[in-house]
């Protein structure tokens, strides 16, 4: 007898009519027609069952702070950074914890159970670090939160930035971050990448660096990051986030750069919602949108995942904690509308992100942790189109959140009484 069986599930890889049996917090069997009973059974009714969504790039210290102390009037990246610089000196640990916990509540209802958050280390008080370390411990039963020591104002540019970042790592932050394009000069940016990779190698930590988040085609810190990754033997443990300058780079140079990134096994983390909102602000027309070269990097074998980046903060006044919203936008801006394209996009929200974060026991295979979500959609492609409700969110074999299916009622003579958009309008072509 199992603890829980989820029956009649469609899986992201195309399998259908699958039962998933769970015992002691792990998947004990995943196959058709499991002839056994369980303490609890859930009928997925031929809907999509997926491993949980993962956000590999977020700023939890700033989330839900929209309008404090004022709004970002221009909507630009630089005003957002300046605005955060106004809020940071007056923010308290208590309000940081409260906002972060509220966001984590939202994340759970969205089936988002793994988050990597960058934590600003530019204020020597490190109240942001203290707060997020407390949040990490408090949400541990239901969200795995990874923290990146992030020198928002520049590793060298910020006063006491070097010492503050090292203190954050000593306090228990487990990933080394950076922002080389925000240093005073290109050379300072290069030196910061070298120094930060050296720290990561010495401490045995991963690296996740904001890299070339600019429209400048000559901002080429990703090249340095890839080279330093190889130099220090950090292959597979380094992520380059944003990489928007690659949108504007010369094609010949990119033909050299992508193989170098592949050699270094760089994890690539674009942030579609934020990248297309903030980039190209100095253009008239044609206007660049700043999304990095997703299709080309996927084709080269690079591990590409997508981050939400911001939700209602100084940089982005929108957002919902829904990674399917991120994937939905990625389909459009990357022009990846084919069937296989969409499968790759869905993977970028799940299994690719799990690889980038180094997660163990993640997935829908026997022996994996019983962390799964049931969506009001037939398959991954429909999930990306509809951004459907999460009917059940299961952590360690226990349901921790439910959302009722979205059903529209009709009061029209001769027409159906109700509409289930996740079932009644699924195309038959597969």
UniProtKB/TrEMBL annotation:
Entry's EC annotation: 3.5.4.1
A GO term for molecular function: metal ion binding
Keywords, in A-Z order: Hydrolase, Metal-binding
Source domain of life: Bacteria
Gene Ontology biological-process annotations: cytosine catabolic process
Signal peptide range in chain numbering: none
Group of enzyme by EC: hydrolase
Domain Amidohydrolase: 40-400
Pfam families reported in the protein's UniProt record: Amidohydro_3 (PF07969)
PANTHER family: CYTOSINE DEAMINASE
Name the record gives this protein: Cytosine deaminase
Organism: Rhizobium giardinii
